[in-house]
Amino acid sequence: MIRAVHLFAATLAAALAGTAFAYPLVVVDARGGQLRPGARVDSAAPLSLKPGERVVLVGPDGRVSIVQGPHNGPPAAAGGPVQNPRLALAALIATRNDRASTVGAVRSGALAAALPAPWLIDVSRPGERCIRDDAPPIWWRPATSDAASFVVYPVDRSWRANFQWKPGEDQITAPALMRLDGAKMIVIKTGTQERAIRLNIIPADITDPAVLAAWMLEKACVQQADALMRQIEAGLAAPVPPSS
Fold first, then answer.
1. Tens of pLDDT along 26-49?
2. Which of 115, 165, 219, 234 lies at a 20 to 30 A Cα distance from 48?
3. Taking Cα atoms as reference points, which of 160, 145, 150 lies closest to residue 191?
4. Pseudo-torsion of CA 5, 9, 15, 18, nearest 10°?
5. What b-and-e string marks burial along 40-78, b requiring 16 or more CB atoms within 10 Å of the CB?
6. pLDDT tens-digit profile of 153-169?
7. Between the CA of residue 164 and those of 51, 152, 168, what are the distances in Å?
8. What share of the chain is helix, strand, coil (3-state, %, to 5)?
9. Which residues pair with 132 in a beta bridge?
């Protein structure tokens, strides 16, 4: 009887150990297969990928993992994500600095002006931008006192929208009726200069700051990731109110 109890306890402990560190992973990018960006995957559940298929996943602490096919097994190594938000932030900043050292990341925003908020679309330079799928784009330019106009259109030039900066204005919210649906690449034209901007859509239900920052970095929205991480850092530095 005692042996049976010990065997049951050992079996239960093994089962709990196998599930204790299971945590959700968010799909950032997927090539082939049925997964789509924004989908959730259990870190301990089997994931099957055929040769040539590829999935980019981000954990709740912002760590990114890439799973290449052929693959048949859990998408993440056992152990679980980092629980300390300060450690997660430090890891994200280190990742951002590593990427900023490459030519592509520098072109994507490492040397760009600092954004006052993460969801602004800098129209002063080309490159990658991240945008929520439930919000209109907010155009932004570095501080200037000049009035200016600019035009937005998709690469197929099927439509165009005209905007006017007022003196000292640095943000313009696009109207709700602006037809951005399906336009992943747009062109910003100021005078005779054209800048191509690729829009990376992030689902509205992705709200965890570490996941958002990692997603932005993965999509090379470095300028926006910097702004988001400054917000995260400010929140971590804020004093914790005393409990009542």
1. 999 999 888 999 999 999 999 999
2. 219
3. 150
4. -150
5. ebebbeebebeeebebbbbbbbbbbeebebebeebbbee
6. 998 888 899 999 999 99
7. 50, 11, 12
8. 30, 30, 45
9. 202
